[in-house]
């Protein structure tokens, strides 16, 4: 089990560009979460999916942010257009729906928008 | 929704001493409380968790206690070592739900 795999590990982009962050989930884990981590606000839940269906996207900061989970093997978080205040570490995490266990986090993508 | 508060935000201890991190939660329906350790450049890793039907759980040098009446839970690390230095997060989850609510984190530094 390779765990939750995120790519890229680091991304530097210019303001206004589109950014796509990727997450490859663990097989058999049917809940997927996207978090953003900053020094000021800590870990913020952006959106989560159960069985590939978005359940709660109330944490998505603006319409510039969108997330998809087209199948159980892949999820993306897209920011278009990106802004410097989007600079943060973005984590993908997984859990088994209804399980009594916590999340498994990926290693994160450090995004810098200049 | 749930609100999880965590204290202190930073904590420095001498190697070999104990460290205690405290969290409070607001929703009495929460019944699962995990703790995560985040090392530099990595994602948070689950280190211990407790469910609302027990008051204490131990795993070697770490332990967690839960007071359901007061709605607070704590992480205790004994005989601290330099490799315990990291940011620690508490979290809470309601029964039947999937999403965790995280505290703001505690940066623990163990001084050799």
Please summarize what this structure is.
Chain A is an all-beta fold and 114 residues long. Helices cover 0% and strands 54% of the residues of chain A.
3D architecture notes:
The complex is a heterodimer of chains A (114) and B (112). Chain A has 114 residues and is an all-beta fold. Chain A is 0% helix and 54% strand. In chain A, strands 2, 4, 5, 6, 9, 10 and 11 form a seven-stranded mixed β-sheet that branches. The radius of gyration of chain A is 13 Å and the shape is globular. The mean pLDDT of chain A is 90. In chain B, the strands form two sheets. In chain B, strands 2, 4, 5, 9, 10 and 11 form a six-stranded mixed β-sheet that branches. Classes of the chains: A mainly beta (114), B mainly beta (112). The A-B interface holds A 4, 31, 33, 42-43, 45, 48, 50, 55-56, 91, 93, 95, 97-98, 100-108 and B 32, 34, 36, 41-46, 49, 51, 89, 91, 96, 98-100, 102-105.
Keywords:
heterodimer, A: 114 residues, four-stranded antiparallel beta sheet, 54% strand, B: 112 residues, five-stranded antiparallel beta sheet, 58% strand, globular
């Amino acid at each position: 089990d390779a765990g939750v795999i995120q790519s890229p590990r680091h991304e530097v982009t210019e303001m206004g560009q589109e950014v796509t962050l990727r997450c490859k989930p663990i097989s058999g884990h049917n809940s997927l979460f996207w978090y953003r981590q900053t020094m000021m606000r800590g870990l913020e839940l952006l959106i989560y999916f159960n069985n590939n269906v978005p359940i709660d996207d109330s944490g998505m900061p603006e319409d510039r942010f969108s997330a998809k989970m087209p199948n159980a093997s892949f999820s993306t978080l897209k920011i278009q257009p990106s802004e410097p205040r989007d600079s943060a570490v973005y984590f993908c995490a997984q859990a088994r729906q209804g399980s009594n266990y916590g999340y498994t986090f990926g290693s994160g993508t450090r995004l810098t928008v200049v | 929704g749930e609100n999880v508060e965590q204290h202190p935000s930073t904590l420095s201890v001498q190697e070999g001493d104990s460290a205690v991190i405290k969290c409070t939660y607001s929703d009495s329906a929460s019944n699962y409380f995990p703790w995560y350790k985040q090392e530099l450049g990595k994602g948070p890793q689950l280190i211990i968790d407790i469910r609302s039907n027990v008051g204490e759980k131990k795993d070697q040098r770490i332990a967690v206690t839960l007071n359901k009446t007061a709605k607070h839970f704590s992480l205790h690390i004994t005989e601290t070592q330099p490799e315990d230095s990291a940011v620690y997060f508490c979290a809470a989850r309601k029964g039947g739900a999937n999403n965790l609510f995280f505290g703001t984190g505690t940066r623990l530094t163990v001084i050799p």
